[in-house]
């Protein structure tokens, strides 16, 4: 039976802590969920498994995973030293209809206002079934961290809105990258002259340097 959504932060934190040390196979077996052989075609499977086990209820809606609590859950694949192995997907970057939307009304802000970070062993040499869940962390950005993210978001949204070229080098901690199964997928956008075009969808991602900062402050220098 699918767990009901947690009703408070204490309950969510307890559920997440209870999974620490479990392998992905343990969790999947406990809930009768079939594991894929690998993540090549099911890249989001680990996150979906933990969302199920913890009682997330947002599903595909554009809001935080735990809707009653306003908490988003993000997994972080890490190596043996605790370093993030990849960037963290946040949400799709809207290409139209963003006139007048400021930072505090953006989906990026809503997704990052309160996050349950769950580290996962992610090195390829460890079979998927044997990868363990690490110690979770409930996190809210400090004023300094929010200012860094806001500055990147404002820069990237300006480039996106006016059809300017964007690369992964734009943004110090937040970046825009293609978000589609392949290059044939297109969405409505505008070019540099304001004319409607069909362009590749993009998504917002946190760079590894930012998630490393979060992990360092939580587990090396103490909670933020």
TrEMBL record:
The keyword Hydrolase applies. It is found in: Cytoplasm. Residues 54-152 form the DNA mismatch repair MutH/Type II restriction enzyme Sau3AI domain. Gene3D superfamilies: DNA mismatch repair MutH/Restriction endonuclease, type II. Keywords: Cytoplasm, DNA damage, DNA repair, Endonuclease, Hydrolase, Nuclease. GO terms for molecular function: endonuclease activity. Signal peptide: none annotated. InterPro entries: DNA_mismatch_repair_MutH, DNA_rep_MutH/RE_typeII_Sau3AI, DNA_rep_MutH/T2_RE_sf, Restrct_endonuc-II-like. Its main location: cytoplasm. Sequence-specific endonuclease that cleaves unmethylated GATC sequences. It is involved in DNA mismatch repair. Belongs to the MutH family. This is DNA mismatch repair protein MutH. It comes from Corallincola platygyrae. The gene is mutH.
């Amino acid at each position: 039976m699918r767990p009901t959504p947690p009703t408070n932060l204490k309950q969510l934190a307890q559920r997440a802590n209870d999974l620490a040390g479990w392998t992905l196979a343990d969790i999947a077996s406990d809930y009768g969920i079939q594991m894929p052989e690998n993540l090549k075609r099911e890249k989001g499977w680990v996150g979906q498994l933990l969302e199920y086990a913890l009682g997330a209820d947002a599903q595909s809606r554009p809001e935080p995973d735990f809707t009653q609590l306003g908490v988003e859950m993000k997994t972080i694949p890490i190596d043996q030293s605790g370093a993030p192995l990849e960037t963290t997907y946040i949400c799709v970057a809207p290409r139209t209809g963003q006139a007048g939307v400021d930072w505090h009304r953006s989906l990026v802000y809503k997704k990052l206002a309160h996050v349950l970070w769950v580290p996962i062993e992610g090195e390829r040499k460890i079979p998927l079934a044997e990868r363990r869940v690490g110690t979770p962390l409930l996190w809210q950005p400090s004023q300094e961290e929010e200012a860094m993210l806001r500055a990147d978001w404002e820069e990237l949204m300006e480039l996106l809105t006016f059809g300017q070229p964007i690369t992964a080098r734009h943004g110090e901690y937040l970046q825009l990258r293609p978000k589609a199964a392949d290059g044939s997928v297109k969405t409505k956008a505008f070019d540099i002259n304001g004319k409607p075009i069909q362009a590749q969808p993009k998504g917002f991602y946190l760079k590894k340097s930012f998630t490393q900062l979060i992990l360092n402050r939580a587990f090396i220098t103490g909670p933020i």
